[in-house]
Amino acid sequence: MTRIYKNIVILSGAGISAESGLATFRSENGLWNHHRVEDVATVEGFMRNPEYVHEFYNEMRPELFEAQPNPAHFAITELQQNYPYEVSVITQNVDTLHEKAGNKNVYHIHGQINQIVCFHCGKVFETWGDVHSDDKCENCGARGFLKPNIVFFGENLLYMDKVDRLLKNCDLFISVGTSGVVYPAAGFVQIAKFSGAETCEINMEKTSNNSLFDRHIYGKAGTALPELVKQLLGKIS
Ligand code: OAD
Q: Is the C or the N end of the chain the one with fewer CB within 10 Å?
């Protein structure tokens, strides 16, 4: 990248966490190869069998609790600490590796594994423990209304007003480790590009949004992102 940017937005997907040992969704051994999306990640699936859905996320929680950030996450911290302008992170990931690495301004548009929401009173709680379909809400006392604070297919994304502003104001949009097939996030590059941003993609392979990126870096996020951050910081020193 050839200049100094005033508003950098980084969009991350499961690929940024792959080198931390977490499975992506659509790879050969991906989560969606072993589970039906309709059963564990849709509103209908949750209404049909909430305990099954809770079990799925209960099983996932300990692994994500233990997981540690990798050089890609730490590179973002380095950029945020040393770049004199705004750097924001929009993540589709429900893990908390961005936070564990010290990233700031992180927007979890698909929710977080360590949160549950009561869809009776709307209160969001933090927990790394198991949740069950007949648990009681600590806030309103209603039983049977707790749902993992994960955005299921058929639900609105979180923080969309803020995200829309970030995308329309950014002058550099970097997409890391996402296949670009799940909308609306897959369309963020288009919003950023049409708003005048330069666009850059880091991925192991060609993605479906390929033509919308000005620059492609094919490689592992843990190597490519620190390298890109070095280039960005090199411009300001
Ligand atoms: P995917 O599994 O669809 O895509 C992961 C992408 O990361 C692929 O393009 C891989 O090639 C790439 N990748 C793998 N390892 C990498 C590495 N070390 N460095 C760089 N890239 C690497 O995951 P997402 O695009 O994040 O939603 O999926 C989007 C959404 O689909 C998820 O947030 C999830 C799912 O349904 C919810 O659960 C709400």
A: C
